Amino acid sequence: METVSPPQTAWSRETALQEKRDVWQSIKRGFRGRCPRCGEGKLFRAFLKVDNACSVCGQDFTPHRADDLPAYLVIVIVGHIIVPLALWIETDYAPPVALQLAIYLPLTVVASLALLQPVKGAVVGVQWALRMHGFDEAHPEP
Ligand SMILES: [Zn+2]
User: Fold this and answer.
1) Ligand 1 centre distance from Cα of residue 42 (Å)
2) Could you name the domain of life of the organism this protein comes from (predicted)?
3) Distance 43 CA to ligand 1 centre (A)
4) DSSP letter string over 3-37?
């Protein structure tokens, strides 16, 4: 037996008059580890633990669903920096493999750890700005 989903709210003047949210500003605030709404409160309570709510404006952060996207994006970003660098150095200078490993492996680890929290903050900022998941007060997730 199929379940019937509740009807979607139709577009109306009231739905269009919601507070505008600047996506780029939210990304920048999240990247800095700040609340995407006010830019003042802290977004994280631990390295990768998003706080439950903003300490300044009270914005609820629990609806965020960053999941694996920050890690995926960090792999893409760091890979697009380290791999061309390694290919360029190998083709032009051909240093010993041990020296390359001694540089590339720690560089990859440090760059990944350095980017993980800012990228996760940016993802939460995008989700808030686009009213994804439970960030839309007009249509909260059940
Ligand atoms: Zn805030």
Assistant:
1) 8
2) Bacteria
3) 8
4) PPPPPPPPP-HHHHTSPP--HHHHHHHHHTTB-TT
